[in-house]
Amino acid sequence: MMELHLLLKKIFLLVALQGFSCQDHSVLLPKSITALKGSCVEIPCSFNVVSTDFQLVWYRDQYGIDPQIFNNKNPSYVMNTFNGRTFLVGNKSKSCSLRIDDVRDTETYYPCINENINCDQYSAFEKVLVQVSDTPHKPVLNLPTSLNEGISALINCSVQHTCTHNPPVLEWNKVGFNKREWREELEEGIWKFVSEMDYIPTYQDHGTPIECKSIYQMGQVLQEQLILKIQYPPKHVIITKPDGEKKIKEGEQVTLQCTSNANPPAKNYTWYRINKDGEEELKEHGENLTLTINWEIVKYSCSARNELGKNYSTIMDLSLFLYAPDNGLSKLIMLVAVIIVVPVLLLILYCKIRGRKLQCCQGRNHLEVQICEDTYMNTYMNVMQSDSSAKHPQQKGAETTDNLYMALQKTDPNTYVEFKVRDF
């Protein structure tokens, strides 16, 4: 009976000690957490004992004596490489959460509270492995499944991190409105930083990239890019002539094409003919229109429609493509005109000279008239030679028609006779 009593006593003591051990290890913290090198990490930690004044010491687990990396009562006990890099965060009444700035190496850490909670390194107690990575997380873009021109859409970009004290900066390459930023906890020690804004799509942005960059404390930059697919009604509706600048004649057939920029593409087209009575809608509803040229009706327009709306083209004037005569005929007409005009001009010149001659010789005898006519003829020939060869210098003693005319007006008739005899 004595032996049974002693055995029961040992069992009772063992159970009591086990309960004390459980109380001693009532610390909650994650098994591991991954942090970006050079950034910070916040290790979530809590304990059950509510106390406004407690001693908290964090240790780095290693062979031999474990150095202190944080001590809220005696900071001077902290090893030099962790001075100014560790801070207590969270609800201070029951929080043992620790922030480590400028994370450098993969290490294991553990807290000790009041020298009796999670402090026995020779028994099982809670530790956390901080794994250091050189590669930051890539941002994630979230867009609505459908984007319509002019309708505001909510878009956001998010990135995971471990440092709420200094999270990465998120930047957009598109302009938005009502920009908002917040953080949310994903799991123990892992946070998501979110940037959200209202974006108003435009048709110019269709097919262009939307980009979100995450910029980290140490200068690392990662980006996520998506191509925008924006729906919009027809834009830039125009009429084209597939055969280009080819000239057309009345009675010939010509094909016109109605084109537009739309997403989804326009599927319905309407053609209009413009005449003196106004605009007339044609029965054709295809992208192409083939018509026979009638120069009384040469103006056309079209409209394009898709699920989102309708738009109109400007008017095409087919008279711009009117067939013009061949250039050879134009040259022939000019040649005929020259042949007719030149003799007429020469005739006018002759008549003017003839008129002056008659004025000069009027009232004189036959010999004087003959001399006068010969003189004018010589003068006429000199004038014609001067006009045809202006580059030859004028001979000494030559006189212009006007000078000779003045001489004939003022000289005595006998002088003309003598002048005539000397010439012959």
UniProtKB/TrEMBL annotation:
From the UniProt annotation, give the residues forming the signal peptide.
1-22
Q: Which residues cross the membrane?
A: 332-350
Could you tell me which species this protein originates from? Xenopus laevis
Q: Which domain of life is it from?
A: Eukaryota
Residue span, Ig-like domain: 234-319
Q: What is this protein called?
A: Ig-like domain-containing protein
Entry-linked Pfam families = Ig_3
Keywords, A to Z, come to: Membrane, Signal, Transmembrane, Transmembrane helix
